[in-house]
Fold:
Amino acid sequence: MSVKDWVNTAKICGLDAVDLSMLLVANHTPVYLSQLKKDLSELPLVMMTAYPDFTHPDALQRQRERDYFYRDIALASALGAKYLRMTPGQAHPEMDVKQGVGLATEAFKRSADIAHRYGVKLLFENHSKPGCWRYPDFSHPTEIFLKIADGIRDTDIGINFDTANTIVYGSDVFEVLDKVMDRIVTIHAADTAERGALKPTVVGEGIVPFDGIFKKLKESGFDGWICIEEASNTGIEGVKKAVGFVRAAWANA
Structure:
């Protein structure tokens, strides 16, 4: 599906905006970006998602990853995205936890300075594993996610909280939610069929306690964007079900 087709489909499904992965942006040439902005003109592009690997064990590759991500920031700015989701990198077997936390924290802080120049707000997610990576996210373990979150507390980097990934790791979603609540800017509404395993299902049909999560968010004064991360492989019908469920769950929380 092209970006233009997705925007049209998103309108049909009742979405208010779109979230675009950097994997869907072919290049950064002027003619291409001009056409892409036209394709996105029917709905706001609120957030983009990128996949920097700041924890790569090779120092030269880490530098490449930083430069790649700076390009992602520039692209997000060019397309008018308000937010850019980022990751610390992959859980490479040879990367020590302490070193990895340090590398990720340093790279996040440098990236925040670049993003500030471009008017893009960076968001750190409690992430699991994208299909474009070999290994899971370095910060998938809850304790590592919280260490990095604490390490960037003195920056303006926000949190994009995924409703499923903490449960996928096997941790208590409410305990983690409470620890980062004051910094949550956006939500990824995602679901899983099983605790301790990534088994995507139609949003609302798995084990994620959306009622409790949304209630806590409302009580904290959250009024940001909720991005539906529909990964059940049930096509447009799955998206429509997810949209209906999330709207109802938020209204009733």
User: Anything to note?
Assistant: The longest helix spans residues 97-118. The chain has a mean pLDDT of 96. DSSP finds nine helices and seven strands in the chain. The beta strands are 18-21, 45-49, 83-86, 121-125, 158-162, 184-189, 226-228.
